[in-house]
Design brief:
five-stranded mixed sheet, Glutaredoxin, 2 domains, Jelly Rolls, 19 strands, alpha+beta
Length: 341
Amino acid sequence: MPRILVLVVVLLAVIIPAPTLAQEDNPAEEIEALALRVHHHNLRTKDFTVWTGGELGDSTVPYKPTWEMGTVLKDWELPGFREQDEAVSWDDLERPTMLNIWASWCHPCVQEFPDLTEIALTPEEHSYDLIFINSFDEPAMAEEFVERQDPKLHFLSDPEGTLSGTVGSQAIPTNILVDEDGTVLAIHIGSYTPAHAAFFEMVAQHPGVGSFDPDDYPDLEPIAELLPVTADNTEPIAPGAQVSGVLDDETFQHAYRFEGNAGDSIMIRMHADNSELEPYIVLLNEAGERLGESTDYAYEPTATIQNITLPEDGTYLVVATRFLEADGMSEGAYTLKLTQR
């Protein structure tokens, strides 16, 4: 179903800070800044992260892992998926390692695979190794998927999800970060975005450092993080007209403007055109205040804002982007149509 949000109030956002040079000299501060970013992502995606310093995301989700952070996950050994893949046990680890539990039918598993592949193939550039563990899958589908991947990747097999069950994870993808002695440093359930990767890097470098309390950020809104938009850096769009574009990692946001009158009813529809794009739209007034935003639900080809009544005469802005914006993992072509009554 399309994403629909009926909203006429202004939404206020807490700015999510990026780590600064000063924070690089203070790992605890940098980890807290990254934890805030992950917490914001998780609120939007309904994913969940737990680490020795706290919980990140909606604490009411039903699939929180039950494993106690900071304790050793031991006495496990998994066979290789292919003949070339060696079996691995908990005492084979030589440095921090992330265990990625995936299945070929799982959309977020497949979507995050290119970024995880980059981490796995360049261990010298990262603070942890990465091993892929296939679980809950159809053997033929899993084999076909693995055949398309880089042969240097290391795959293990856990068809019944024993390891996932051990840590109390009830969903995939699940990413478990353990230290070289098997101590569990963090578990993330859901899509592994660049924000999560940066956070795991710091946790692997500084185990046990830092903490995060969601109650310290009571005004945090799970809304899109946009680049600055003004009428001067937008393209015009006429009511009833359709515009098109392509979004990717380099250009993840387009902006349009139109003239509206008080009382006008607005509907905006953005559709992915034969692409993997996960569309997302935001409606603002000329001052940049948000009047409407498509709901945060990924993997849908259509985003919609409707039943917005314009509060006054003036210029309005429409931002066409992708789910999770700069940290999004989808790209492709789209069409966007504005209806004004």
